[in-house]
Amino acid sequence: MKASGLHPAVMLLLCFISSAACTSLGFTEEPFERAGKADGYCGRILRAQSNRKESNNEFRLRVEGDPDSYQPGSTYRVNVIASSPSYFRGFTLIALKEGAGGDKDDDYAGNFRIIDEDETQFMTNCPHAVTESTPRRRNNIQVFWTAPPSGSGCILLKASIVQKKIIFFQDEGPLTKQMCEKDATDKPLLDCCACGTAKYRVTFYGNWSEKIHPKDYPRRANHWSAIIGASHSKNYVLWEYGGSASDGVKQVAELGSPVKMEEEIRQKGDDVLTVIKMKAQWPAWQPLNVRAAPSAEFSVDRIRHLMSFLTMMGPSPDWNVGLSAENLCTKECGWVQKVVQDLIPWDAGTDSGVSYESSNKPTVPQEKIRPLTSLDHPQSPFYDPEGGAITPVARVVVERIARKGEQCNIVPDNVDDIVADIAQEEKEEDDTPETCIYSNWSPWSACSSATCEKGKRMRQRMLKAQLDLSVPCPHTQDFEPCMGPGCSDEDGSTCMMSEWITWSPCSMSCGAGIRSRERYVKQFPEDGSICTLPTEETENCVVNEECSPSSCLVTEWGEWDACSATCGLGMKRRERMVKMPPADGSICGAEVLEQQFSLSLCLVTDTIPCLLTPWSEWSDCSVTCGKGSRTRHRVLKSPLELGECTEDLEQVEKCMLPECPIDCAMSDWTEWSECNKSCGKGHTIRTRVITMEPQFGGDPCPETIQRKKCKVRKCSRGQGNSDDKKRRKEQREKRRSKQVKTEVTSEHPGCKMRPWSSWTECTKQCGGGIQERLMTVKQKFKTAQLSSCKERKEIRACNVHPC
């Protein structure tokens, strides 16, 4: 047989490579099935040869992210791509251990997983291979591949392509991808041999902007939520790829709230050394001269040498960035000097939205945490049909600023180590761009410390003009260390102390408690004396003074915001959140916002383009219950002639009120039942059922049964006796009849009726339900009128006792 003008040998070869291509040419796989096991069939695919000798770059096999190695057990997206205008009709994809022949099950590595069953399927006679579902023109397919367990060595991902009458085989370079197991030395070091402790500063730089990520960029509401994290031991995991999001991670990812996450961290006790907190950033990207990047300090030791944090991209379904278990301990028993990491967003697996402002769509069941990719969904703002890497949306810098205690690192300290420990606060030479015009520096302020404890003093300058908006202008404030009168940095008996770290949360969530803060010795006295200055201090604190059912639980006050005015009188504010509403359902009366006046030193009388009023109060939530949003505004005060002001004049944040009440819902009333008496006074009823029970304080359910009097006709004398006689006569007739069921014809001339059915089950166990029974027509005589022959239904109340 020579179908389609092909030589039989070539047709046989097509059958090896593509099951659909074989079917389209009129061949079947039966000869191969008779040949033996599927393993032999797989082996023949690998041993097939092509007459095409020249190399080509029309087709390529690509693993997303282009990794050179694989992590055992991890899942990767594999693509077979045809460069435009090329295409292919069939393909085969396998994963083979390097050097193996493919004749045994053990020769294959990992497992494929189908993404689109309309496009791909497992090959019938070779279950290790993936092939096309239907033969048609295509330029891209994709599947998931899960790497084999540790110890599998190097593997080869191989693809074969069928295009018209030409077959491209795996051994041609672009269709083969080698990946070796990731070296164990690349794994995070879980055990630490360093001595003493180290102090670090983490700084977060948002790089998520409309210029870099233009697709569907949310101009008005873009921000980073408050950052939450910790330095911790290997026994605690805040979040990790392939893991499930905790309630705390879910609250950060969906609402941007760090409250639950902080509670989870603090419950870990000795597994956590420092809780890391940084303020939210509105908008998500800001020039360095407008606002300093968020930063925080934390400590690590031999046990708690890992650092993790996360922050939400807002708005988004459940997207975040962060570090997970970053190891700050080196193999040489020292402390890492600096870590710089570009961050891409990851999905918490709790919401199925595909774009920044997708409506809430909870993922049920919850999925695993995974990095976002450029092939997730065409509506994704990061979508790239070529499967390229996502441009980072943020960068984090972790720098060591001090070490404490005796160190035992094997490698001697270099210059950078020494500078970081002793002179980390020394300023670099002024590198102010020529395009930034400033006023002169003001005189240094008084030292913040009146004792020999180390403090800071400050000076300021005003940005008068920015000639080139593409060149950022550096800071307008400068700080340097200082001590009180009579003290000297050069005094050999003086302890050099760090600044106090932020106060810890109050030890009680309701009532009086204690909070603490700490600092550390940056430099011990050179004369060998003991440093007697305290490194920890405590103070009393009160949270939620009233501890009653009508009181609500609130968090401690956050840090004060910067003064709203850079010159003269302004306002500063701080906030706290409601952790739990009153148990009795009343409205929480605790204040969640506090403001006070602040005064900033005016250095010169010049004005700058962005002179703004303080932020207004937050508006009411856009909804009266459930999830919504609220806004606040400010107004530009400086004249437009001074230049363009790029500051936001409106901010939007999410808000959440108690669940909306759901009222009781009822069905429609049924028709009134027939009167329960054939003559004289009786009653008739109608009923309805509850379709939705009230929830969250909704209106209760009304009555489900109504009765009213009825009277068909007056009863004539003796009618009752005649009815009794008729019933006794019918009973006698029934006893004489051998039939199990009696046909009822009384009151239905021209019809034969079936007996009444049994009463149905009561619709409710208590509180009033209904029962029904039916009488249906069995036979209708020709002489019967239309109106005289119809079904009957009776309804009665049941289980009317209260619940």
Task: Report the mean per-residue pLDDT as an integer.
Answer: 76
The CATH architecture of the domain at 197-404 can be given as Sandwich
Strands, total number = 44
The biggest beta sheet is recorded as: 7 strands, mixed
Summing up helix and strand content along with how strands pair, one would put the structural category as mainly beta
Strand proportion? 25-35%
CATH topology of the domain at 197-404: Immunoglobulin-like
Q: Residue ranges: pLDDT <50 for 5 or more in a row?
A: 1-14, 23-39, 49-55, 184-189, 422-429, 488-492, 603-607, 738-746
The share of residues in helices is under 10%
Distance between the termini: 81 Å
Broad CATH class of the domain at 197-404? Mainly Beta
The CATH fourth-level homologous superfamily of the domain at 197-404:
F-spondin domain
**Shape annotation:** extended
Cα gyration radius (Å): 39 Å
Number of helices: 8
Main location: secreted
Protein name: Spondin-1
Signal peptide: 1-22
Domain Spondin: 188-381
